[in-house]
Amino acid sequence: MHLIIGRFGMNKAGWSGDACRCLAAGAAALSLAGCSSMAPPVEQPTIVAELPQTYSQPTIAGTYQPASWWTDFADPVLDQLVDRALRNNLDIAEAAGRLEQASAQARLARSALLPNVSASADASESSSPLDGNAFSDLAGGAIDRLENETYSLGLGASYELDLFGRARGDLAAAKQDAIATEYDLQTIQLAAAAETISAYFDLVDSRRQIALTEVTTEVLSDRADRTDERFQRGLAESFELYQVRQDLRSTQASLPQLRSSQAAARSRLALAVGTYPSELDEDLSGDLQPRLVFEAVPTGLPSDLLAQRPDVSAAWARMEAARERIGARRAERFPTLSLSASYGTQAGDVGGAFDFANNWVRSLAASIVAPIIDGGRISANIRSARAVYDQQAAAYARTVLSAYGEVESALADYEAQRTRYRLITSQLAEAQASLDLQSRRYASGVGSYVSYLDALRTSYQVESSLASAARSTALARLGVHRALGGDWADGTPSEPPQMQSLSQEVSP
Asked: What's 38-115+163-333+379-505's CATH class?
């Protein structure tokens, strides 16, 4: 139930004294409450306030520079694919649609702070019998029906003064929701670029593994033939022959799986760039050899994650939206002041409706409505808004905690993969030295061809391990950049660009 404190009209001389006093009181209340907010103060969750000053993993000094970091691989094919993904990825297009919807919702909330103006034009005609009507005696039987035509034009306006910040709180919350959606878009852009890079390196690795497996199969096939000859002459045991044949069959059996992995990586890459796999054949037809990068990534401070990570920024914006809605729901406890006015004409013919000088009609009104008994609706809404805020605060704290942990894990993994790559590189050098030795021994007639084949096979196996280590190192570097966040294309704006114009239009 609401209590209507007053409704005042306007006579020919102007506003009545009561109306003037009411408007004066409303203006005073507006001056006191217009710039205030009933939302709780801005607070950082405890776990965020206790964010460590440094990472526990070793880092290097410097400012994190995320923009187009994948160009360090010096691979024009990869650069082109990432650019296509950022333009054509369908997840990005879907997120852009959600952003447009959120921006429209924010503008819808803004409309509550502006006057509502409408125009109208009406025409009516009625005909009723005079018999039994109160005017029948006056007419004296001269007429038997009552005819009436009315034409009117009008212009009306209404406006609710947001004395206690309800509409401004809802607008601020809607703007924060739109800002969160903008950061969601940045998160998906980052994910699309990361998926493109990951699928590309999976494709490069699968190609290299297939090539190495094919030459290893040839070596093992030759080795099996040689062993079979030696077995026939009694120079080799059956166990050795069976072992070599098992190795050959095992290596041959891995080829279908590798080709399946290649096809899967190609399909993932096509989906990331928003096209069909066959459309990538021309781009991927050449020799794909991205340069490996081993330099450490400057991480900056953990506190930088609060601005760099779009998922953290989105969680913060949603927490702020929930906080603003608490204030908006609290404001519903207080009165609302509404003003309305209309001006127009009314006449019995069309021409008279345009006679503004003589047939004008006007109406001015003000009303104050205050809640008294609402069955606990407002209190329940406030509790609900507070509960949503608590949920969003926990989600924000969890996102920050997760972001810090992801950076720690990514740094550790990158260091481990670089160490592994260096060790396998040393192993390959030793395998190639052994191969060179066996090649010279066989050429000079001292060593056997079987020993040479074994050394060659070992060299190919180590090359295969090194190719996998290169992929893991590249993906570990991707993990560091993804964990640190940032705008990989231009640099993270302090406020999403599509919301800046809206912020300038209305400042709650």
From this structure: mainly alpha
